[in-house]
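Sequence in, structure out.
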Amino acid sequence: MTEYCVPTGAGESEYVEKRSRFLGHVRPVESEEEARAFVAAVKKEHYDARHNCWCYIIKDGPERYSDDGEPQGTAGIPMLEVLRREGVSNVVCVVTRYFGGVLLGAGGLFRAYTRSAKDALDAAGLSVVRPWTGMDIPCSYAAAERLRQEVEAFGGAVADMDYGAAVTIRALVPEERAEAFSARIFDVSGGSVSPVVTGKSFRAVPRQR
């Protein structure tokens, strides 16, 4: 089974430490060329900044980073480690530093670049790319919240909720757990609800927070 995470969208952050401003930028990308183009665009926009440190991870491709003039190991690597820890691929991160006149030391720089990258990634959100099974779950209003929680408990995501005479939960469930999920819904509903498979797809779905 193939599963990995990507940024859901663009993410920005701002952090100030001893008058130095750190601006974090995260973007989803599909290639190394796209990642490098984004780095170049940020450098052009923030041409007057002291540093534009960056890193990126391309799925089944390279990992790259740059300290852009900061002491070795204090910027690019800490930023890259944030992405690695979150298990995210096809992502580029640039942290722009406007120097505030006060030296931060290696430890201070390490913490600032780590925080800026993490805050920007959190702002972007994460989506899980994997095979999904789409399911419609028709149920009563009284049962809707309980069944919605069951979707999330199985690592799934609620794509939509249709409200009419009854409720239809439109869910995406990990493909390999779809059969067990159907059995669970049947059991917890006392046999009154049977999910209907609506299709299968390989796509990015925002991770539930």
